[in-house]
Amino acid sequence: MKRFSQILCVAFLVAQVRGQNCVEEALNCDDPVPTIFKLGDQSCACNSAGHAGALKFLNSKVQVCLGNEWKTFQFVEDIEYGTEKNPGSSCKDIKDKAVGKQLSNGVFWIKLQGVSGAFPVYCDMDAGGWTLVFKAVSGVDKKIWDTYNSAQTSSESVDAALDVTNKFKDHYKNRVVLNWSSFNPSQAKVVLYTGAASQKELLFNAVGTDKLNWFSVGKLVSSSWTDIKSEPRNYFSIRGGCGGGNCRSFFINRNYGGCGVDAGWLVTPGVWCSWETNADHTKRVLYSKLSTYTDWNVKNNVGVADVLAVFLM
């Protein structure tokens, strides 16, 4: 008997569903705004304030009556800021507009004013929103000065290059270096990394500078080395000392006096002295591991960075 009751119940439910009637709703144009659950292409005339707000679906578009005319809805996709379709102007700009969000270091998209096309950049968000614009990688058989000073970018859109490691074996430069004034930086920073960890930093005032003259003792704000401003210097420039097509670039040097007594703070080596041509130092980014300058011949005091990175803000 119990089983028979269950069968009757199911049969009753099926009968009810199968017996539903669909009643087509007729438009009543006497109503100010007819209520329709599924929009169709039929509508009352849009010719009075009483019809304002009426909707219809025509030619695959939703339209709304404004009282005296139909207007098509413009659906705007909510695209996250700092992406390819919605780029920022800098990493700092993206960070500042991420209200209520904690952004991590990584790749974002920017577009420079007056320069066509958006492009990806690495952003140091932890430090406040710094934009990576150049990266010299130790061990690469490609001249750093030539890469930095050329009229071309280098590995700009290579995903593997967009970090602060030396995993991608090429120097990196994006179009910010070529359009320095369009970016209009207020600060510049050089960071030396080993294993993605910062070893030394130099901070510069970049207001009113170009791609070369920002790197100078006059623009230096702070440094991991305490004596750069107090000690004499024979070089403090990106181009550095050049000869025969070779350069000691990003060069901050205290003195020459023969290879055996050369001393300084930072250099991407040339080809002239044993301290820069030995197997451990050739084509590497070298720096003083001390808080002061070092004799380049004292190997224990000379560090080798994986990367020399230039950031702007």
TrEMBL record:
Keywords: Disulfide bond, Signal
An example molecular function term from Gene Ontology annotations: oligosaccharide binding
Keyword match Lipid metabolism: no
Keyword Zinc-finger: no
Signal peptide annotation: 1-19
InterPro entries: Fibrinogen-like_C, Fibrinogen_a/b/g_C_dom
Domain Fibrinogen C-terminal as annotated: residue spans: 82-133
Domain of life of the source: Eukaryota
Database matches in PROSITE patterns: FIBRINOGEN_C_2 (PS51406)
A GO cellular component annotation in the UniProt record: extracellular space
UniProt cross-references to Gene3D superfamilies, sorted A to Z: 2.60.120.1000
Protein name: Fibrinogen C-terminal domain-containing protein
Organism, as annotated: Pocillopora meandrina
